[in-house]
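About this split. The held-out portion is used to measure sequence recovery: a designer receives only the structure tokens and must propose an amino acid at every position. Recovery is the fraction of positions where the proposal matches the reference. Here is one held-out target exactly as it appears in the evaluation file.
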């Protein structure tokens, strides 16, 4: 069964070594999103990137000690995403968050 709906994509750009209460920040965000009942979340590790300080982060062998860029994506209704933003305010000390409209097509068993 195909279920189309309008939604919102929350994209969070942080560093792999960022922490929240002693655990990786990306993990804490995903677990909190699950706890809050959001529809789904995925974490991607970047191979190359730079942020506000213009420092290049790369996965090249000589720089493996650098904190790699990480992107957490969460898709849900605009209302649920809006409710989740204050939680992120408490968790993120350095990073970037973007919001986009998304048209979701979910496939489910009949």
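Reference sequence for scoring:
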């Amino acid at each position: 069964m195909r279920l189309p709906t309008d939604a919102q994509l929350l994209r969070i750009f942080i560093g792999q070594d960022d922490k929240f209460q002693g655990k990786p920040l990306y993990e804490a965000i995903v677990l909190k999103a699950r706890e809050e009942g959001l529809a789904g979340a995925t974490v991607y590790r970047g191979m190359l990137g730079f942020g506000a300080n213009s420092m290049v982060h790369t996965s090249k062998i000589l720089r493996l000690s650098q904190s790699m860029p990480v992107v957490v994506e969460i898709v849900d209704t605009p209302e649920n995403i809006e409710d989740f933003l204050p939680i992120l305010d408490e968790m993120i000390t350095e990073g970037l968050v973007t919001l986009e409209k998304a048209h979701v097509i979910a496939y489910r068993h009949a």
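Annotator remark: The helical segments are 25-35, 78-91.
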